Automatic annotation (TrEMBL):
Keywords: ATP-binding, Disulfide bond, EGF-like domain, Glycoprotein, Kinase, Membrane, Nucleotide-binding, Repeat, Serine/threonine-protein kinase, Signal, Transferase, Transmembrane, Transmembrane helix. This is Protein kinase domain-containing protein. Pfam families: GUB_WAK_bind, PK_Tyr_Ser-Thr. Residues 1-24 form the signal peptide. GO terms for cellular component: plasma membrane. The keyword Transmembrane applies. GO terms for biological process: cell surface receptor signaling pathway. It is a single-pass type I membrane protein. CDD domains: EGF_CA, STKc_IRAK. It catalyses: L-seryl-[protein] + ATP = O-phospho-L-seryl-[protein] + ADP + H(+); L-threonyl-[protein] + ATP = O-phospho-L-threonyl-[protein] + ADP + H(+). Its main location: membrane. Residues 422-696 form the Protein kinase domain. SUPFAM superfamilies: Growth factor receptor domain, Protein kinase-like (PK-like).
Length: 755
């Protein structure tokens, strides 16, 4: 009898547990109901009694339905379908908004009080927000404008859905506006007012689309096949909406400051939510359970779950972690693996491994050096071919001159060392064809190293051309080439070092400590003219420079002129009178006749030299800017002033004040003849040289006569003695030409004019 009573009592308890859902589940408080229907209700949520929930925000209702089932309610109109502690979410059902029409195109009122249902939802000011990462606002219909705003109407969103035929709704439907549309919702949304509007009379789509719907839906559960265009509304039309929750609307720092209201139990950590609305609780690593219960997070026995927590030896659980020791005779980290070698074997293995590693490293280093050396040789061979080495060899083999063969070929390492790795502090100048560096060779010789900027076929031809031309020239007023290097990435040329820069710098970047006197300008002019005369008529083959300008005239330590940059120069056969080439040169110095005809003659160099003479006389740039900032061509302006007898309007003030006007006029006349637009009427460089020398001779004779009158024959003898000693004085009254003078009976190119 007693046994029967005990069995009956046990059955009643089991029945009561099945009805109420009360259990000893560790995720709920003791004595509280675990579930309502199919939904598990973990703490901080609770049902039945107020103590079962953390506070009133988390208290839920469990009601019985007409068919005897139990249903959990998050709000009075929102059934709860799932609660997740891990994700901090509650999934609820919310009725969709709808808009239906009858055959007349008006809103239908047949079976409902109104067939326009606009939904208004509010989660209050508590710890709940609509999840912006999980939910998507969706509208279904063929003429539907759906809008949604929050309660305060401070933010809104919506979408437009159109279609003219019955669109098929499916889970795979992209929902891009044909039959349906969707859009994201803002972060932190706590209330929602959904409105629907049809913008047509609806009669043209009524047959297959009597109603339009708008709703919020969990993206993971959204299936558009549940929302066909032919659907009509019922009170069962509820979508799954994910609501995010936090323990409290505070930061972790604020929550920890008040221990009485802090929601996290022991062995937990506070985590600020992604939506920025408050904090949640999570168990520490090595613990599992409900972090909102005081003792909810319990230590995990990792040894009982070897699939998740690997151990190759003996496993021993610890609080929040576990230890794994290898068995006797084994070694290693048991969590990673255990080895079976003894200590002697280990020592031998280590020694062998170290020795083997050293041998491997030494062998690898040796092999690397061999491969690098071979790679370097192949790379140098590639650069040699790429930089025109074969073309240079062809020039060497076909040349009758010995100068080319005597040109030294430098290695790339020599020039790297000479220029300190092409240090930017060694740069002497930069131009269109390359950069020039100052360097010092191993024997102490100072050189200039020109490093090309490009390696196109056209530039290579100019590079090889410069090597060949300069190697055949031996004239003191032309920069001497010492050698070249073709095995570097770009071609390199090595010249004698010219210390005092370019004529351009002395003319246009005036040096107050060392100004250019009239005598120095005449000296530079006659030396430059002599060098060009040599190229045109005295060299073994005629050579046209093709880029005469003040930046290509260098000044050595005695301020003697040196012509440089022969990259565009060309040599001619004896019977040639001109070159027909693509027009190239420097604007302001370019011969207009060459520009029009593409035929370059020796008179084209004469024109460019005429511009340099004009620069020497006026100290103006080839392209000058007047006071109104208009750009003018110096050559044209110079000729115009000469024709108007106003040359002294532009002559440099230093010349105008200190030197004979007749000498200035004589040089100006030569420049004007050189700048004649008709090349046939220009003088040759030989004639220009002779006339400049004649001006210098006449100037010297005047100085001698003046000195004789003032000091007599004795002083004159001393002056002649000084001349014979190659004086380098640079005053107007005593000037010595460092050049072999032509005979004094050479006729002037143009008669002197008095302006």
């Amino acid at each position: 009898m007693i046994l029967q009573r005990r069995v009956f009592l046990l059955m009643m308890l089991l029945l009561l547990a099945a009805v109420t859902g009360a259990t000893a589940n560790p995720d709920v408080r003791d004595g509280c109901q675990e579930r309502c229907g199919d939904v598990i209700v973990p703490y901080p949520f609770g049902i039945g009694e107020q103590r079962c929930a953390m506070n009133a925000n988390f208290f839920l209702d469990c009601n019985s339905t007409d068919d005897g089932h139990h249903e959990l309610w998050f709000r009075e109109d929102m059934p709860a379908r799932n609660i997740s502690l891990l994700n901090g979410t509650v999934t609820v059902g919310i009725l969709a908004s709808f808009d239906c029409y009858d055959e007349s195109g008006r809103q239908s009122r047949q079976s409902r009080k109104s067939w326009l249902f606009n939904q208004s939802i509010s989660l209050g000011s508590g710890p709940f927000t609509f999840s912006d990462s999980r939910n998507m606002f969706t509208a279904v219909g063929c003429d539907t404008i759906s809008m949604a705003t929050n309660k305060e109407a401070t933010s809104g969103f919506g979408c437009l859905s159109l279609c003219t035929v019955n669109a098929t709704m499916s889970k795979e439907n992209s929902c891009l506006g044909s039959g349906c549309c969707h859009t994201a919702i803002p972060k932190g949304l706590k209330s929602l007012n959904i409105t629907l509007q049809s913008f047509r009379n609806h009669t043209d789509v009524l047959e297959f689309n009597p109603c339009s719907f708008a709703f919020l839906e969990d993206k993971d559960s959204l299936d558009l096949s549940d929302w066909p265009l032919s659907r009509t509304p019922t009170y069962l039309d509820k979508s799954n909406v994910v609501i995010e929750w936090v323990a409290q609307n505070e930061t972790c720092e604020e929550a920890r400051a008040n221990k009485s209201s802090y929601a996290c139990g022991i062995n937990t950590n506070c985590s600020y939510s992604d939506n920025g609305q408050g904090y949640r609780c999570v168990c520490n690593a090595g613990f599992e359970g409900n972090p909102y219960l005081e003792q909810g997070c319990q230590d995990i026995d990792e040894c009982k779950d070897p699939e998740r927590y690997t151990c190759h030896g003996k496993c021993h659980n610890t609080i929040g972690d576990y230890e794994c020791k290898c068995s006797h005779g084994m070694h290693g980290d048991g969590k990673v693996g255990c080895g079976g070698f003894g200590i002697i074997t280990i020592i031998i293995s280590v020694v062998v491994g170290v020795v083997g590693m050293l041998l491997l490293l030494i062998g690898g280093w040796w092999l690397y050096k061999i491969m690098e050396k071979r790679k370097s040789i192949k790379l140098k061979q590639k650069f040699f071919r790429q930089n025109g080495g074969l073309l240079l060899q062809q020039q060497l083999s076909s040349s009758d001159q010995g100068g080319i063969s005597k040109t030294k070929v430098f290695s790339s390492e020599e020039l790297e060392t000479a220029t300190d790795g092409f240090n930017v502090n060694r740069i002497l100048g930069q131009g269109g064809q390359g950069t020039v560096y100052k360097g010092m060779l191993a024997d102490g010789v100072i050189v200039a190293v020109k490093r090309s900027t490009m390696v196109s076929e056209e530039n290579l031809e100019g590079f090889i051309n410069e090597v060949c031309i300069l190697s055949q020239i031996n004239q003191r007023n032309i920069v001497r080439i010492l050698g070249c290097c073709l095995e570097a990435e770009v071609p390199l040329l090595v010249y004698e070092f010219i210390p005092n820069g370019t004529l351009y710098e002395y003319l246009h970047r005036q040096n107050e400590e060392f100004p250019l006197s009239w005598e120095m300008r005449l000296q530079i002019a006659v030396e430059t003219a002599g060098a060009l005369s040599y190229l045109h008529s005295a060299a073994s083959i005629p050579i046209y420079h093709r880029d005469i300008k003040s930046t290509n005239i260098l000044l050595d330590n005695k301020y003697r002129a040196k012509i440089a940059d022969f990259g565009t120069s060309r040599s001619l056969s004896v019977d040639q009178t001109h070159l027909t080439t693509n027009v190239q040169g420097t604007y302001g110095y370019l011969d207009p006749e060459y520009f029009w005809s593409s035929q370059y003659t020796d008179k084209s160099d004469v024109y460019s030299f005429g511009v340099v003479l004009a620069e020497l006389l006026t100290r103006q740039k080839a392209i000058l800017t007047n006071e109104s900032r208009e750009r003018k061509n110096l050559a044209a302006h110079f000729v115009l002033l000469m024709e108007e007898n106003r040359i002294f309007d532009i002559v440099d003030a230093q010349i105008k004040e200190h030197c004979p006007k007749e000498d200035v006029i004589g040089v100006a006349n030569i420049a004007m003849r050189c700048l004649n637009l008709n090349g046939k009427k220009r003088p040759t460089m030989k004639q220009v040289t002779s006339e400049l020398e004649r001006i210098i001779q006449l100037s010297q004779k005047k100085d001698v006569q003046q000195n004789n009158e003032e000091a007599g024959q004795g002083i004159m003898a001393q002056v002649i003695s000084v001349w014979d000693g190659a004086s380098t004085s640079i005053t107007c009254s005593s000037f010595q030409v460092d050049q072999d003078l032509s005979s004094s009976d050479v006729e002037p190119l143009v008669p002197f004019k008095t302006l």
